[in-house]
Design goal:
single chain; alpha/beta; four-stranded antiparallel sheet; 16 strands; globular
């Protein structure tokens, strides 16, 4: 990794002056973000980060003085051409030709692995990770609420795979409940089920929920669920039919989203094992019966039932949390994972707190390695037909709006399959709008903002990628290797190189907090820098040496842009 070589070189010199091992200094040396103010420096060392006890006791004035004293002891060399100070920092400017040569060689050599081989990850052990995400309820159409879980889980899995971890993607279906069976028995139609399964099952779901207040319906629903748990043949047959229809429909939608799973699991898989869990809870003295006949686990510190979790209903049927306990234990036995991540909306935070607390009480220390990645709600997502309920309506809408925009745009190139291109660009628009902020935040969805071709949007990323790809094709489409780096000394070229240098730090940051916003922000800045460079550094009409050097810079930019987009779950388009 280009940045690693430079960090190491700076760390070696610092280590002699500070009498600290170079490896202790590497993470304190960070690439300077490119800004419109145009900093010349490429790396900076925060003096506070190497002080004993940190910066809390140090005044800004003291830090500035220490930075100046440290800078005076350092010398420029073949790698560092200039050393300066900022507020509490020592700044390092890399020899400009060496910067261009090292960065471009590294990007083109590492290809899809650029940034992932960085020594920033050297202390991060390779792990077996289980990521559970999406997890819709069977017999219901894919709700828009599941979009966030699906794309966030996909991003986390993609990132972990790119960093060399072994990942198992699990779709844990809500496939064990009481409404759908009795609902279909009352309101279902076999012919409608065959022609439009999930639409019809949704209609049934709406009707059964309306009738749910009726005591007779409630009793029928409970009876059906008990029959399921007792393996009644007719109830199981109906349940299996719904499950098969649902998975077939979901798989089609996942294909549109570019998402895949290693395992389709579900609550039904753990119905039997949930009884084993209840037995274990009982044996450990953790299961208590209430006066109502429900089975609970006391989670309170004082053991006064001020905080509890219900694990079995009064009629003896299992609950969601009981099956989740069984699933967690089974997955550890099956995959021997190092980390397990659940991706759901924040309304389920309390459920996961209870789940993790019970596992800890049961003596499973590995629960410390379980993580709940929660997210906020999407507000104001409407199609032209009105308030949106189903994901497929959104995917259809974004595709049709993109087709309209492509048809009316003057810059649109002729593409082989405009519908497929519109789908990929539209999906990029949805993903980038979703990933721009903190995952835990709610956000207001806006079609106009999401589909702008300029500005910080997924459409702009796709447009930049297609434009750079077109530039490569126009000039031979061959990887450029032997270039004269002295031709890349213009400020706009240096800005792109400085930004490419930072990619490993951005990946590292996202890997630490599992937030895609760092990568999104990085790619949007890269696209803006590329747009400026495309305008000010023409390939066409330049001397052969200059054209080759610039083409190499644009190739490297497109390569890193494509890598980052794929991590986010976006398929880059080559024409639009």
């Amino acid at each position: 990794m280009a940045a690693c070589a430079f960090r190491r070189s700076i760390a070696r010199q610092l280590s002699e002056v500070l009498d600290l091992p170079p490896e202790n200094l590497i993470k304190s040396i960070s690439a300077v973000p490119v800004s419109r103010k145009r900093h010349d420096a490429d790396f900076q060392l925060s003096v506070a980060s190497i002080e004993e006890g940190g910066s809390s006791d140090c005044l800004a004035q003291d830090l500035q003085l220490r930075a100046q004293k440290l800078a005076e002891k350092l010398k420029c060399d073949a790698v560092v051409s200039e050393i300066s100070t900022g507020p509490g920092t020592v700044n390092f400017t890399i020899n400009r030709e060496l910067l261009a040569k090292t960065v471009l060689q590294q990007v083109l050599k590492d290809g899809t692995q650029y940034g992932t081989k960085s020594e920033l990850f050297s202390t991060v052990p390779k792990q077996k990770a289980v990521v559970e995400f999406s997890s819709p309820n069977i017999a219901k159409k894919f709700h828009i609420g599941h979009l966030r879980s699906t794309i966030i889980g996909n991003f986390i899995a993609n990132l972990k795979v790119a960093l060399g971890h072994e990942v198992t993607r699990i779709n844990y279906l809500g496939d064990w409940g009481m409404q759908f069976g009795v609902g279909f028995q009352q309101f279902g139609d076999k012919e409608k089920l065959k022609s439009s399964p999930l639409q019809h099952l949704f209609e049934v779901y709406v009707q059964i929920n309306k009738a749910a207040a009726d005591e007779k319906t409630k009793k029928l629903a409970k009876d059906f669920f008990r029959k399921l748990e007792e393996h009644d043949e007719q109830a199981l047959s109906l349940w299996k039919e719904f499950r098969d229809f649902s998975i077939k429909e979901y798989t089609r939608i996942y294909k549109r989203l570019g998402v895949h799973f290693d395992e389709y699991s579900g609550e039904s898989f753990y119905q039997e094992k949930s009884w084993e869990v209840l037995k274990m809870l009982e044996d450990k003295g953790l299961l208590q019966k209430t006066t109502k006949g429900t089975g609970v686990v006391d989670l309170s510190e004082k053991k006064d039932l001020s905080s509890l979790s219900t694990v079995i209903r009064s009629d003896g049927t299992s609950l969601y949390i009981t099956r989740d306990l069984a699933a967690a234990i089974d997955r550890m036995n099956k995959y021997n994972w190092d980390t397990m991540i659940y991706v759901t909306d924040r309304n389920q935070s309390s459920h996961f707190q209870h789940l993790f607390q019970i596992l800890k009480l049961m003596g499973y220390d590995w629960v410390e390695r379980c993580q709940h990645v929660s997210f906020g709600l999407v507000q104001g997502m409407k199609t032209r037909k009105g308030e949106v309920i189903f994901l497929e309506d959104v995917l259809d809408e974004v595709r049709s709006r993109m087709l309209e925009n492509m048809a009316s745009a003057k810059t649109t190139k002729e593409v082989e399959d405009p519908v497929e291109t519109a789908e990929k660009v539209g999906l990029a628009a949805l993903i980038i709008q979703d990933f721009r902020g903190l995952l835990s935040s709610d956000y207001q969805f806006s079609w106009d903002r999401a589909l702008q071709s300029r500005g910080d949007t997924g459409v702009f990323l796709q447009y930049t990628h297609a434009r750079l790809h077109s530039l490569e094709q126009m000039h031979g489409n061959e990887p450029v290797t032997d270039i004269n780096v002295a031709c890349l000394q213009e400020p706009d070229a240096i800005s792109v190189l400085q930004h490419l240098l930072r990619y490993d730090e951005v990946l590292y940051r996202s890997s630490q907090d599992l937030q895609p916003k760092h990568i999104v922000s990085y790619l949007l800045t890269l696209s803006h820098l590329a747009a400026v460079a495309h305008r000010t550094l023409p390939v066409k009409g330049s001397t052969p040496a200059l054209a080759q050097a610039r083409l190499c810079l644009f190739q490297a930019t497109r390569s890193v842009l494509a890598n980052g987009m794929k991590l986010l779950g976006i398929t880059p388009v080559t024409r639009m």
